[in-house]
Specification:
The structure holds two protein chains of two kinds. By secondary structure, chain A is α/β, with parallel strands linked by helices. Chain A has a single domain (3-263), classed as Aldolase class I (TIM Barrel), CATH 3.20.20. Helix content of chain A is 49%, strand content 14%. An eight-stranded parallel β-barrel of chain A has the order 1-2-3-4-5-6-7-8, surrounded by nine helices. Chain A is globular. By secondary structure, chain B is of the alpha/beta class. Chain B has two domains: 9-50 and 89-203, Rossmann fold (3-Layer(aba) Sandwich), CATH 3.40.50; 55-86 and 208-392, Rossmann fold (3-Layer(aba) Sandwich). Chain B has 16 helices and 14 strands. Chain B starts with 8 loop residues before the first strand and ends with a helix. The chains are: A alpha/beta, B alpha/beta. Chains A and B meet through helix 5 and strand 5 of A and strand 2, helix 1, helix 8, strand 11 and strand 12 of B.
Chain lengths: 269, 394
C-alpha cells in the first residue's frame, strides 16, 4: 500500500478529511519548494501536490501559468523535481503526488518515468490532459511501481465515463468543482455538494475536490461531503507575493494553516 | 486500415488528450458530426453554401508561364485563393458553424494565426447570426492588422493573447481555456486538422472537397492522374484536403512543405514533421517541436499561418507509413515564391502557399521532364503585403 492510501486510511480512522496543498515546483526555486514542503508537513498538510511546470498549461488559469513560467525560466525540469522529492523524503513521509501535463511524461518514457518517480519517493500522478481512454500504458507502468494514478471527475462527466474513471483511479479521485481552469474563486457552485455526494455513492475510493478553493469557509463546507480538499492557486499566489521576503516560508505556512484549520476542529463533521 | 479509428487514432497518432470537462462534449460533438455527415439535409446545406456563398468549385488552372519557367514541370494551381475570404479556410468554417447551429450552441470561439481562419469563422458567424470571439496572438495581431480589421467589421470580437509566444500556439491554449469554462453553450471552431478527435477527422472531411474536385478536374483535363501533389503544411488542413482523396492512387506522390523559417539548423522554424518528435499538445498526439525535457518550443515562420510547433496527426501518420513526403523551405525562399508566382502568372499567393510554390524550384531539378503537379494555392497574398515589403529590405 502506498503512502496516499495509508494516509486516507488513517484519516478515516480519525474521522478527518485530507488537506492537499499544491505548489508549482521550482517557483521561486526547487530549494524553496523543498523548504515549503517541510513547512507544510509541520503545519499538518496531509498530501502535497507538486506541479511540474509546462510550457503550455492549458488547464490552468493565470496564477499557475505565471508560476510555471517563472519555474521554467529558472531551469526547473522533471529530473530536477525528482531529485527534490528525494531530498524531501530524507525527512518526511508526507505523501507526494506529481501534477504534470502528459507531454513531459510521454517524452521521458512512461515506464522509465514511473520507475524513477517511485525510486524518488513519488506516490501518485495527476495528469490533467490524460483521460482514462489514453492512459492504458501509464496505468500499467504505475501499477508495476505502486504509483497511484489519480483521475478527474468533472461536473460534465457522464455516468458511463464516471464508472470507467472510478475503476481506473487509485489513491483518490480528483473532483473538479467547476467547468473551467484552475484559479482562486469566491464561493462554491450551488450544486457542487449534491454532485459530490452523488459521486460518493458510486465509489468507495476517496473523492477530493479542487479548483477555485481559496478560503477557509469553502474548505469547511466542501469537507462536510468530500474526503479531501485541494488548494492550489491561492497558495501559489501567496508564494508569489512573498518571494524575496525573509519570512516567506513562515508566511505561506501561516496561510496554509488558516485554510487547514476547519478540517482539524472537531465540529466540522 | 481506415483512419481514424473509433477513438480518433491515426496509427499511433491522434486521440483525445484534454481535461475531463471536455470529454463528454467531444463525445457529443463526434456523435453529432457522424449523424450530420450522413444526413442528406445537412450535406445539402453544406454543399449549397460552398457553391453559392464560398464560390466552389474553384478552378484547377494550368499555369503555363510558371511551367515554362520550370521547364520540367507542368503545374496546375488549385485556386483556393479565389474563394470568398481568400483562402481554403472557409470550407471548414461553413461545415463547423452549420454544425454549431444544429447543436443549438449560442456562441462560437476560434483561434487564428494569420487571421484567415478567424476571418472565415467571423464571416460564417455573421451569415448565420451567431456570436463569435477569436483568440489571436498579440504578435500576429501586429503582423496581420488587415485581417483583424476584417474580423471586427464582420462583428467578431478579437481577443489579444499575450501569454507565451503571443502566436498561434498560445491563442489555441487560450481558446481551449475559454472552451473548458463555457463548455455548455460554446462551440470551438478549430481551424486545422489538429486538436482532439473528432476535429482532425471532421476538418479533413470538410476540406477533402479540395482534393475531390482537383482529382475530377485533372482527370477531365488530362485523362490521367497527376504525378505530384504539393501543398504547404502548418497544421496541414489544405494539404490534407488535397491529399486525402488521392490516398489510394498509389502513383500520385504527395509532398507537404513545412516552414524552415530562418533555417532548420538555427532552431527557428516550424518544421514539426521534419525536425520534431512525437508528443502531445492541444489534445492530440503528433510530431512536435520540443526540448529534451518535453517542453514545447516556440516555432518561427514568416508566414503566421505556419507558425505552429505541431502538425495534424494524420500528417504524422502519412509520414510514418511513407504515404507522403515532407520537406521545408525558408522564409527567404517563400518570399521568392511570392515574387515568382506574381511575375509569371499575375497571382499573388499568401506567404503560406508561397512555401509550396517555392518548393517547385527544388522539385523541378529532380522530377522527370513532363511531370505534372497539382499545387494547392491555399490563399491569396493581400494580407501579407506589409510583411513582404519589409522582407524585401532584410
Amino acid at each position: 500500500m502506498n503512502r496516499i492510501e495509508k494516509k486516507f486510511q488513517s484519516l478515516a480512522v480519525r474521522k478527518q478529511k485530507a488537506f492537499i496543498a499544491f505548489l508549482t515546483a521550482g517557483d521561486p526555486s526547487l530549494r524553496k519548494t523543498e523548504e515549503l514542503a517541510f513547512a507544510f508537513d509541520k503545519a499538518g498538510v496531509d498530501i502535497i501536490e507538486l506541479g511540474v511546470p509546462f510550457s503550455d498549461p492549458l488547464a490552468d488559469g493565470p496564477t499557475i501559468q505565471a508560476a510555471s513560467y517563472r519555474a521554467l525560466q529558472n531551469g526547473t525540469n522533471l529530473p530536477g523535481i525528482l531529485t527534490s522529492v528525494k531530498n524531501i523524503r530524507k525527512w518526511s513521509q508526507m505523501p507526494i503526488a506529481l501534477m504534470t501535463y502528459y507531454n513531459p511524461v510521454f517524452h521521458f518514457g512512461e515506464k522509465q518515468f514511473a520507475a524513477q518517480a517511485k525510486a524518488s519517493g513519488v506516490d501518485g500522478l495527476i495528469i490533467p490532459d490524460l483521460p482514462v481512454e489514453e492512459a492504458g500504458g501509464l496505468i500499467a507502468a504505475c501499477r508495476e511501481n505502486d504509483v497511484a494514478t489519480v483521475f478527474f471527475l468533472s461536473p460534465t462527466t457522464t455516468p458511463a465515463r464516471a464508472k470507467k474513471i472510478m475503476a481506473a483511479a487509485t489513491g483518490f479521485i480528483y473532483y473538479v468543482s467547476l467547468a473551467g481552469v484552475t484559479g482562486a474563486r469566491a464561493g462554491i457552485p450551488a450544486d457542487l455538494l449534491a454532485k459530490v455526494r452523488q459521486a460518493k455513492r458510486l465509489t468507495a475510493k476517496p473523492i477530493c475536490v479542487g479548483f477555485g478553493i481559496s478560503q477557509p469557509d469553502q474548505v469547511r463546507r466542501i469537507a462536510t461531503i468530500a474526503d479531501g480538499v485541494i488548494v492550489g492557486s491561492a497558495i501559489v499566489n501567496r508564494v508569489a507575493q512573498t518571494t524575496g521576503q525573509n519570512n516567506q516560508i513562515q508566511s505561506v505556512r501561516d496561510f496554509v494553516a488558516t485554510l487547514l484549520k476547519p478540517l482539524r476542529s472537531p465540529t466540522h463533521d | 486500415m481506415k483512419v481514424p479509428d473509433q477513438q480518433g487514432h491515426f496509427g499511433k497518432y491522434g486521440g483525445q488528450y484534454v481535461p475531463e470537462t471536455l470529454m463528454a462534449l467531444l463525445e457529443d460533438l463526434e456523435k453529432n458530426f457522424r449523424q450530420s455527415w450522413q444526413d442528406p439535409a445537412y450535406k445539402k446545406a453544406f454543399k449549397t453554401l460552398l457553391r453559392e456563398y464560398a464560390g466552389r468549385p474553384t478552378n484547377l488552372y494550368e499555369a503555363q508561364r510558371l511551367s515554362r519557367y520550370f521547364e520540367t514541370l507542368k503545374v496546375y494551381l488549385k485556386r483556393e485563393d479565389m474563394l470568398h475570404t481568400g483562402a481554403h479556410k472557409i470550407n471548414n468554417t461553413i461545415g463547423q458553424v452549420l454544425l454549431a447551429k444544429r447543436m443549438g450552441k449560442k456562441r462560437v470561439i476560434a483561434e487564428t494565426g494569420a487571421g484567415q481562419h478567424g476571418v472565415a469563422t467571423a464571416t460564417v458567424c455573421a451569415l448565420m447570426d451567431i456570436r463569435c470571439e477569436v483568440y489571436m496572438g498579440a504578435e500576429d495581431i501586429e503582423r496581420q492588422a488587415l485581417n483583424v480589421d476584417r474580423m471586427r467589421l464582420l462583428g467578431a470580437k478579437v481577443v489579444p493573447v499575450n501569454s507565451g509566444s503571443r502566436t498561434l500556439k498560445d491563442s489555441m491554449n487560450e481558446a481551449i481555456r475559454d472552451w473548458v469554462t463555457n463548455v455548455r453553450d460554446t462551440f470551438y471552431v478549430i481551424g486545422t486538422v489538429a486538436g482532439p478527435h473528432p476535429y482532425p477527422w471532421m476538418v479533413r472531411e470538410f476540406q477533402a472537397v479540395i482534393g475531390q474536385e482537383a482529382r475530377t478536374q485533372f482527370l477531365k483535363k488530362t485523362g490521367k492522374l497527376p504525378d505530384y501533389l504539393v501543398a504547404c503544411v502548418g497544421g496541414g488542413s489544405n494539404a490534407m484536403g488535397l491529399f486525402h482523396p488521392f490516398f489510394n492512387d498509389k502513383g500520385v506522390r504527395m509532398i507537404g512543405v513545412e516552414a524552415a523559417g530562418r533555417g532548420i539548423k538555427t532552431g527557428q522554424h516550424s518544421a514539426a514533421l521534419g525536425a520534431g518528435a512525437a508528443g502531445v499538445l492541444h489534445g492530440t498526439k503528433s510530431k512536435l517541436l520540443q526540448t529534451p525535457d518535453g517542453q514545447i518550443v516556440i516555432a518561427h515562420s514568416i508566414a503566421a499561418g505556419l507558425d505552429y510547433p505541431g502538425v495534424g496527426p494524420e500528417h504524422s501518420y502519412y509520414q510514418q507509413i511513407g504515404r507522403a513526403e515532407y520537406v521545408s523551405v525558408t522564409d527567404q525562399e517563400a518570399i521568392s515564391g511570392v515574387h515568382l508566382l506574381s511575375r509569371t502568372e499575375g497571382v499573388i499567393p499568401a506567404l503560406e502557399s508561397a512555401h509550396a510554390v517555392s518548393y517547385l524550384e527544388k522539385l523541378a531539378k529532380k522530377a522527370k521532364p513532363g511531370s505534372s503537379v497539382i499545387l494547392c494555392l491555399s490563399g491569396r497574398g493581400d494580407k501579407d503585403m506589409g510583411t513582404i515589403k519589409s522582407g524585401q529590405s532584410i
